[in-house]
Each structure stands twice: as structure tokens, then as C-alpha cells.
């Protein structure tokens, strides 16, 4: 037995740190010395059975265990569980990088939807589907009977009788596909946005602020879909077929609202994605000397310039929405010359402020501002040139400021898109709105807005992590 005791002591001496730690966790300081002796005896018993080959009756072990107070084990369990298993995970300070990639991909989808929506309007295809079926409408008609059924439905509405009278079934299939594809891109975008959003939030991959932003953009997405059908419904009203002077087309107010929500969604997704990437670069120390960069962005000259860029970005957005009013009224099909409008830079006042649009009520003369095609086109011209000269002045001023490299690149990019937008706008007007020119003009308006937003983003001070 002396040999066994010697071996046991040597073994325990090698595992002493573990033994001390284990007993310290199992038993509190209030346990009596006898408890520790009993526990040691239990350990020795199991050691003898496992390593020395000496058979020790289980009865002795059980008797010893029954003498150890249960509170010792209860205290140890609760202490260990509360310190490790219930430990709260560290609070996330930045969104996961994949969230940034996802939001920018969604922004690119919105860009595609805007461009295709413009093509749908330019080809006069937007009213070809006369029903709102979010689920069943995703399927394209396949049989001749299905196509005939859809064609007959379309014939019941004013656009067929005033715009597309006499078109064949093959012609109808073309305009139907344009609208069907536009709606299906919207459906696909909803899936691409909502499913990953739910996954990222459930997995804790976004911050609390990120959850709020994702939720807000999701509501904007749902509102955009509802506004789309509300817009289409305005062009399906039976009254448009009964009035001789009425043109079956969607309301320019609803068209502008529909497009404005798309621009807001695009801007929100883009800014959110850029912010995610910037925060991750800052967290991983991939931004050289962030303190100095933040100090630069807080200089009075840079702060003043950033405020001007913010105002200019809002001006760009306003001009884009003015273009939607022009499109909704087909105002680009009159005064197809530039810079003149008839005999002068502006038409006669009697044409701009026409009592016809007041609908017999002198108090409604303001309707000329949004319903008179001549007035709406002049407004768009004024806004477009004001925007161009504003961006030109800011480009000239920005060249002289100590801007970071990223901001300088975005400044030149914005100015380049401004020149291109003016050229496309004039070309579209003087050529009587060809589809290719008009579609490119609308697509470039999104790029101009994106570059202005990008410049604003690069001028924002860094939020240094604490």
C-alpha cells in the first residue's frame, strides 16, 4: 500500500493545478474541511479503480458521496453556469461586410428596374396588364387561349381604343411582355431583399441601427410596390375613354411618386452599403491615419463645401422628378428645339398660364405648373440648367480644396455625368424623344444622382470607434 500511496501522491502532484482549480470551483470557502477530505477520498477511490487495478467496492464510494452536502455541488453548478453559459455576447459595433455587398447588389437591381420601367413607359406598354395579381400574375400566359383571354381584357379599357386600336395579338404580346417583365423584376427584388434581410437580422449580423435601416428600406420597398399598382390604376379609369380630350395614360402625379420612391430606395441602399464598408475598413485599421482624415473633414471650408454638395444633391433629385412630370405629360414632344422655345427663350405668358387648365375655376390656375405641358417643360429646362451650372461651380470650387483622393474622384465623376446628362437631354428633345436617347437620359440621371451621393458620402467625417 505504501507503494500505491507513493504513486498516488506523485500523480496528484503533477495534476495539482487542475485539482486545485476543480475543487475551488466545486466547493465554496464555507465547506468544512471534512468535505474536502471526503472528496479527496472519492478521488483516490476512483484513481485506484482506474489506474492501479485494485478493486474498491462501489458501496464505499456511494457512502462517501452521500456524506458530501448537496449544496456544495449546487453552488458549484450555479457559479459555473452563471459565469460562462449565461455570459452575454459582445455587442456588435459594425455590420458584417456581406451586408454591404447585399445592399449594393439590391441598389443595382433598383437601377435596372428604373431603366426597364422607363422602357415600359416609352413603348406604351405599362397598361397592357389590367389586373393586379401579385402571386398568380408572375406566370406568363402560355397557351393561345390564355393569350386571347388577356387580349380581350385589354380591349375593355380606353388605351386600346385610343392608342392601340387595331393591334394584332402578336403586337399585344410584345407590350404585355414589357410590363410583365417589369413587374417580375420587382417581385424578384422583393425576394432578394426580404429573405436575406431576415437572415442577417436573425443571425445578429447587423447592429441595432442597421436593423432600423433595413426595416425602413423594407417599408419603402412595400410602399413602392403598392404605388406601382396605384399608378397603373389611374390609366385604366373608364372616364379616360368617355372624355374626348382625355389621353389614356397614367397620372403624372402618381408616376412621379412612383419614380421618387425608386430614387429614394436606390439612394438609401447605396448610402447604407457604402457606410457598412467604411465602418468595416475603420474597424480593421485599413484607413490610414483616421484621426487626421476626420480632422480634415471638420475644417470649416470642407464643412461648408459638404453642405453645398448636400443642397446640390437635393437639386439633382428635384430635377429628376421634374423629368418624370415631363414624361407623364409627354411634354418632350413639343418645342423640340434648344435653347429657344418658339420665338424666345420662353413661350408667351398666355400659353404658360392658360385658363384651360384651371377647369373653369380661377383659383385653380396653379394647375398650369403641373398639368400644362408647355409650362412643365420650361420648368424642367430651368431646373436642368440651374443644376448644371451649380455643379459646375462646385466642381470649380472643389478643385481648389484639399479633398481626399476618393472625394476628388467622385467630384470629377459627378461633373462628367452632369455634362453627359445635359447632352442627352438636348439630344432627346431635338430628336423628338427616340426611345434609345430617352432611356439613356433616364439611366444617366440615376448615375448623376449616385455620383452626387458618393461625393457627399466621401465628405462625411469618420465616426471613430471607441
From TrEMBL:
Gene Ontology CC entries for this record: mitochondrial inner membrane
Presence of keyword Electron transport: no
InterPro entries linked to this entry: COX15/CtaA_fam, HemeA_Synthase_type2
Reaction catalysed by this enzyme: Fe(II)-heme o + 2 A + H2O = Fe(II)-heme a + 2 AH2
Transmembrane segments: 98-119, 185-202, 214-233, 253-277, 309-335, 378-396, 417-437
MF-aspect GO terms: heme A synthase activity; metal ion binding; oxidoreductase activity, acting on NAD(P)H, heme protein as acceptor
Pfam families (alphabetical): COX15-CtaA (PF02628)
Subcellular localization: Membrane
Membrane among keywords: yes
Cofactors, names only: heme b
Record keywords, A-Z: Heme biosynthesis, Iron, Membrane, Metal-binding, Oxidoreductase, Transmembrane, Transmembrane helix
Protein's pathway: Porphyrin-containing compound metabolism; heme A biosynthesis; heme A from heme O: step 1/1
Any one Gene Ontology BP term: heme A biosynthetic process
Membrane topology per record: Multi-pass membrane protein
Residues in coiled coil: none
Protein's UniProt name: Cytochrome c oxidase assembly protein cox15
Gene: COX15
Amino acid at each position: 500500500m505504501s507503494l500505491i500511496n507513493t504513486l498516488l501522491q506523485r500523480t496528484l502532484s503533477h495534476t495539482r493545478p487542475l485539482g486545485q482549480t476543480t475543487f475551488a470551483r466545486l466547493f465554496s470557502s464555507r465547506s468544512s474541511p471534512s468535505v474536502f477530505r471526503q472528496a479527496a477520498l472519492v478521488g483516490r477511490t476512483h484513481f485506484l479503480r482506474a489506474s492501479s487495478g485494485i478493486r474498491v467496492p462501489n458501496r464505499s464510494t456511494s457512502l462517501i458521496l452521500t456524506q458530501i452536502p448537496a449544496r456544495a455541488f449546487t453552488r458549484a453548478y450555479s457559479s459555473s453556469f452563471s459565469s460562462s453559459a449565461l455570459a452575454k455576447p459582445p455587442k456588435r459595433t459594425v455590420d458584417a461586410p456581406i451586408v454591404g455587398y447585399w445592399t449594393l447588389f439590391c441598389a443595382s437591381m433598383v437601377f435596372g428596374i428604373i431603366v426597364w420601367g422607363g422602357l415600359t413607359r416609352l413603348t406604351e406598354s405599362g397598361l397592357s396588364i389590367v389586373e393586379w395579381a401579385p402571386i398568380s400574375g408572375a406566370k406568363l400566359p402560355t397557351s393561345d387561349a390564355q393569350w386571347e383571354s388577356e387580349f380581350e381584357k385589354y380591349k375593355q379599357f380606353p388605351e386600346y381604343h385610343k392608342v392601340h386600336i387595331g393591334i394584332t395579338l402578336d403586337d399585344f404580346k410584345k407590350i404585355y411582355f414589357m410590363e410583365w417583365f417589369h413587374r417580375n423584376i420587382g417581385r424578384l427584388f422583393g425576394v432578394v431583399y426580404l429573405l436575406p434581410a431576415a437572415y442577417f437580422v436573425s443571425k445578429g449580423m447587423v447592429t441595432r441601427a442597421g436593423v432600423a435601416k433595413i426595416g425602413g428600406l423594407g417599408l419603402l420597398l412595400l410602399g413602392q410596390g403598392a404605388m406601382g399598382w396605384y399608378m397603373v390604376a389611374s390609366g385604366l379609369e373608364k372616364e379616360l375613354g368617355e372624355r374626348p380630350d382625355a389621353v389614356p395614360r397614367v397620372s403624372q402625379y402618381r408616376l412621379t411618386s412612383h419614380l421618387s420612391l425608386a430614387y429614394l430606395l436606390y439612394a438609401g441602399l447605396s448610402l447604407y452599403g457604402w457606410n457598412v464598408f467604411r465602418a468595416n475598413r475603420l474597424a480593421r485599421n485599413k484607413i490610414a491615419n483616421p484621426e487626421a482624415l476626420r480632422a480634415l473633414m471638420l475644417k470649416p471650408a470642407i464643412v461648408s463645401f459638404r453642405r453645398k454638395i448636400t443642397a446640390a444633391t437635393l437639386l439633382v433629385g428635384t430635377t429628376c422628378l421634374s423629368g418624370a412630370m415631363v414624361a407623364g405629360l409627354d411634354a418632350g414632344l413639343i418645342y423640340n428645339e434648344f435653347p429657344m422655345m418658339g420665338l424666345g427663350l420662353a413661350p408667351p405668358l398666355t400659353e404658360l398660364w392658360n385658363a384651360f387648365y384651371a377647369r373653369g375655376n380661377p383659383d385653380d390656375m396653379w394647375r398650369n405648373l403641373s398639368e400644362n405641358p408647355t409650362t412643365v417643360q420650361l420648368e424642367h429646362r430651368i431646373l436642368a440648367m440651374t443644376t448644371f451650372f451649380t455643379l459646375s461651380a462646385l466642381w470649380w470650387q472643389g478643385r481648389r480644396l484639399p479633398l481626399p483622393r476618393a472625394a476628388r474622384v467622385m467630384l470629377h465623376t459627378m461633373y462628367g455625368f452632369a455634362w453627359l446628362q445635359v447632352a442627352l437631354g438636348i439630344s432627346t428633345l431635338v430628336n423628338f424623344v427616340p426611345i434609345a436617347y430617352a432611356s439613356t437620359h433616364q439611366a444617366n440621371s440615376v448615375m448623376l444622382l449616385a455620383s452626387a451621393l458618393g461625393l457627399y458620402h466621401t465628405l462625411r467625417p469618420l465616426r471613430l470607434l471607441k
